[in-house]
Amino acid sequence: MKKEISDGLMDVFNSVNFRFLDVVEITEILQRRGFYQNTAFIKAQSDVWFRLNHYPFCWVEKDKQTLWGLECWLPPKQKRNIRKTNHTISPLSIGWETQHTISIERAEITNGTFPLRGQTGKSFIASMDEKQREHSIVELICYGSEKFICALTHNDNEKNWMLEGMALQRWYKENDIQSGDKIWLSVESIIPISLRIYTEWDRDADTYRRYEQRRKFETLHYIDLPIRDLIWLYFKRNPQVAHRSDIERAVLAERPEISARSIDVCLGANPHLFSPVGKGKWGLKEWGVEEVSMVLHPKGSDPATVVDKNLPTVIVSLDYVLANIDAEDLVYKILRGSKDSLSVSQITEKISKYLVVDKSLLTRTTFFNVSDSRFVRCQDGTFTLRENLEEVIGQLVARERDLTESLEQANEEVDRLKEEILSTRSLYANAWSRERIALGQVLSALLAEIISYIGYSNLQVIFNLLRHKLELHRTEDESK
Fold first, then answer.
1. How confident is the model at residue 46 (pLDDT cuts 50, 70, 90)?
2. In angstroms, what is the C-alpha Rg of the chain?
3. How far is 458 from 13, CA to CA, in rounded Å?
4. Phi/psi at 297 (5° precision)
5. How far apart are CA 365 and CA 348, in angstroms?
6. How far, CA to CA in Å, does 31 sit from each of 48, 55, 299?
7. pLDDT of 366-411, one tens digit each?
8. Starting at the edge strand that comes first in sequence, how are the strands of the sheet with 160-164 ordered?
9. Domains of the chain, with CATH numbers?
């Protein structure tokens, strides 16, 4: 069991991207992974602390807090021995900057270092407090990665100071730094000193567009992209607030060799790119999900009313807006107040006008629960309330009954007309039959009289001549 816990500790540190952790956080992670299930948290925490005091773990002091990591993350302590410096050297000021161009040999990337030329290293030391000097650690805040810790070391051969650590090496590789690229450092705070590290292409306001153009994401294999870029591409291709599990599923489909925990850490470690939207959901920070302007209505207000211009406006997160929509049951109220069924777009627009919230933000969310039993999807894709539909169904049933009665009356009229037509047809058929018989009798008597005067043969000649003449007339008519 002892070896299993030691292996579990190593797995924890191997999954946090060189991020130093406190004992409480380490213990909580171990418990989530199945360790110390039947042990009180205080006792488990004590056992973890005892194990961390042995190789290969190391500790540093930061913000009056003890943080733990692996010894291999930082250079050996003899390289981090900060000698006493001249107290006349002034500390750096907030906003001070320096830059370094990556060499052709790329030794900085290989070794995970950032050189500090001339008096810069001494000025760095003058900007540290006693605890920071004791551990010779410096915190770097960066775009494209989480905060990380590296050490201030001294190169006796070149008589220069440098920042060094495996976290810095990973940041170089994660940002695809190449020979000739410029890296910037600026001072965020002093005593203790805290720095921000920039790539050349994310120093302006248009941070990630330049980075995207430089990397040409679409032409790269997914295996060549860091986790952060895969998450960013997922949101660009699916511009909707997404649950962490959906993001993990999409990223792991491209990079099955990484862990879901790494994706979770990356989301939280890049607050300049990704923002939480509550209940495990995330979105891009550039969408403005953190600061949303919203009008506060009195509880129970009707969303169909005109917005009062005197109502207060507050700046909240998108998560708060979604919680307000759910708490006030706005979707139900809007459908209840509408005579016609509404599409999701129409519902979104009405909520946007009521809360005075940017509609594009709402379209990126799933505030409308289509599986709510109170709502019914119509054939044209619009939605209405089930209670409205039942009323409509009752009206249609009554209308169907009226139409059925009208149809039965019409069928009776048709049957009567059919009987009259048959009766009339039979009457006229009988009359025509009698007339035809009488006409036949008259013609037979006439022919008998004619034959007695001219003979049968002469009558046959006359009929042949008439037949021939009729055929001539028919031929002339056809030729015309």
1. very high
2. 45
3. 131
4. -100, 150
5. 10
6. 11, 22, 42
7. 778 777 888 888 878 888 887 776 666 776 777 888 888 888 888 8
8. 97-101, 182-189, 194-199, 137-142, 148-155, 160-164, 113-116
9. 2-73 (1.10.10.10), 77-202 (2.40.330.10), 216-287 (1.10.10), 292-372 (no CATH)
